[in-house]
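Um, can you check?
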Amino acid sequence: MKKKDQDVELKFNDAYDDNAENVSNKKEQVILSPDINNKKTAFSGIVVFIIIFSFIALIVSTISYFIGGSNNNSFKSFQRKINTDNKIISVQNGYALTQELVIEKQKFVIRKSNNEFTALPINISSVSEISLSPDSSKVAYINLENTISLGIIVLKGLQVKGFVNYNLDMMTDKEPFQLAFAGKSICPWTQVNWSSNSDRFAFFFCDDSNESSYLAIVNSNPIDVIWVGKKNSQLTKRFVEWLDINRILVSHNGLQINTEILNIDDIIKENN
């Protein structure tokens, strides 16, 4: 082939390659353009869907507010009342003594679980102090209704087996203790404190003028006074705590500063 023909052929090939590249680029542009358009369309569809969904949610929320608003407010009010009024008084032996709302009335309750409980048959408004024995078999409380008395509720699990309100003279038939109780009554401020084995409890009783107070130790089964302390003339609320089944710490004033430890078994021996 002549040189001139070779040059023509080379130029022709170069032109062919350029045209081929242009055609290829055009094809790529044609192929890519629909994908870009589809992505834009899909994105626009998502935006429209979000706007429509938000609008529907707003409408549903508004309707729910007007239809169920009063019910929601009542529920919130009920929850606040429950949280305010309920309280745990003590927990013993797997049972809780609580104060809570039962059928829209405040009650003392013995509770074993969320769904297992018993409301105690006493008027909560007349009770100043209440306590559950460590073995959870008895509840003791101070009843201020009419004459001040000490109530005992006997339990078997969640079953109330019986309850009695004791005046001082009902707790003993022993003459020394009957004489000690004469003209006196249970102090309205006293607590009822149980020994760790639930066999005994302690409380204070006062002169009718409430000018003096005395400590009483009582067997719980059956109810029987076993010791009465000396007169204390300080006009303050006093405290007693069991250190073990025989020893108690008793205060002689309301500040728990002037205290004394008593061994009950030793005292009983001394007085017999």
